[in-house]
Design a protein that fits this description.
Structural class: alpha+beta
Helix content: 55-70%
Number of helices: 4
Number of domains: 2
Largest sheet: 2 strands, antiparallel
Bound molecules: zinc ion
Strand content: 5-15%
Order of helices and strands: HHHHEEEE
Distance between the termini: 61 Å
Strand order of the largest sheet: 1-2
Number of strands: 4
Shape: elongated
């Protein structure tokens, strides 16, 4: 084994959370470069974004080189769970691009998802069998 491989053996390395941290560092870098063109706040921005990037980089390095895989795996899973919840929430709250409309069953309050643009249709609730008409 090469020295690098031996050094990285048994360490956390790249997981979803660390890839997200690296992406965040790059995004923060691009944003701060864009803001350099605003002379009045240039130095404040550079300091704020610079220290934020350092924090992200420190978190990434510590996590990547950590040998406590159980703890890092727990963090990674919590991150993925949180991300899934945010994605689900965005999908529901952003209008238009989901291709679905959401209704509550008038009888049992069950959440129902139907395709958009089908005009007036009858919807049958899979939970209680209630049938009601809605415009999609
Ligand atoms: Zn129902």
């Amino acid at each position: 084994m090469s020295r690098l491989r031996r050094f990285l053996h048994g360490r956390n390395g790249f997981d979803a959370l660390n890839i997200a941290l690296l992406t965040a560092i790059i995004v923060v870098n691009i944003i701060s470069m864009g803001m350099q063109f605003i002379p009045a706040i240039r130095f404040v921005i550079a300091a704020a974004f610079g220290s934020f990037q350092l924090v992200l980089l420190a978190a990434f390095t510590v996590r990547a080189l950590s040998r406590n895989l159980t703890a890092r795996n727990r963090e990674n899973l919590a991150f993925i769970n949180g991300l899934t919840k945010v994605k689900r929430w965005l999908k529901r709250s952003l209008p238009g691009d989901s291709g679905f409309r959401f209704f509550k069953c008038p009888s049992c309050r069950h959440n129902l998802r139907v395709p958009k643009g089908k005009g007036h249709i009858f919807i049958t609730c899979p939970q209680c069998g209630e049938r009601f008409k809605r415009k999609t």
